[in-house]
Amino acid sequence: MNVKPKIIRMKQTKLMMVVVVLFLSGTMVNAQSQTLTFKKGEVLDILLFNGKPEMGKLFPKYKETAFAFAVKMGYQPQPLFKVAETTQGGYQPSTFIFGKWPNIAARKKFLDEIVDNVPDFHEQRRAMWSTFYVSFYEMENDISFGIDPNKTVVATHLWKQDGVDFSTFQGEWLKEAKSQGAKVLLELRNPNSAVGYLYKPDYTVLLEWNDRASFDAFSAKYKAMELQEIQNINQFVIQ
User: Fold this and answer.
1) Distance separating alpha carbons of residues 172 and 176, to the nearest angstrom
2) Model pLDDT for residues 49-74, shown as the tens digit of each residue
3) Tell me, what DSSP letter sits at residue 54?
4) pTM score above 0.85
């Protein structure tokens, strides 16, 4: 059995993760709990992507151009997490990143002006990432949450069917999760996104489970149900 190609791919993936962490987050994500804090009026980004093998070679230019302009506009890097597993849905990203902006005006100003300042911005992204999706949210309240590597942390993104009462399902779904031991870390609604990177789930929730068995038991129940209220779901274990 020839395992060499598999080993090479694994090394490439690890290299891409190191490159992204060093440049986007500034620090390596380690075995300690990562705490994220956002104040009312700040903007929380969620970035989902898959890197290409060329990413390590091309990223320094991106850092000096697009990333530098984002920082100039007020962008603040946050800890990076890998997607350990896609548990539901057809999209399977490798990386899950939070970002922070000082306000919605700064976030939108970046989108409006990035191509004028970095003409090959989109070309650079396409060269480095095979997929890249963005959601961003204006915080209505101060929030703080932690990602504990010793827990099972699951990000769920739900799209509702048109013309249905989604709030009832949403409340029952969350109530059942809590009854089985889940802790709600983050709830997000009313997303913004960007042309070419569109990702606008109606409801995003980050849940912490004490162990994988508890999450699997909850997940099995809802996978078996006929979820008429749900149009689509993507769900990831992050760490």
Assistant:
1) 6
2) 999 999 999 999 999 999 999 999 99
3) T
4) yes
The answer to whether 97 and 21 have CB atoms below 8 angstroms apart is: no
Helix axes of 121-128 and 104-117: crossing angle, nearest 10 degrees: 90
Q: What is the CATH number of the domain that holds 56?
A: 3.30.70.100
Which candidate, 206, 236, 227, 89, places its Cα nearest to that of 161?
227
Distance, CA of 76 to CA of 44 (rounded, Å)? 10
Angle between helices 55-62 and 4-20 (to 10 degrees): 10
Q: What is the DSSP string of 173-200?
A: HHHHHHHTT-EEEEEE-S-B--TTSB--
Q: Is the pLDDT of residue 29 over 70?
A: no
Same domain, 45 and 123: yes
Calpha distance 60→72 (Å, rounded): 17
Choosing from 142, 173, 195, the residue where a domain stops is 142
DSSP 8-state assignment for residue 66: I
* pLDDT score, position 32: 67
pLDDT, averaged across the chain: 88
* Domain end among 108, 142, 176: 142
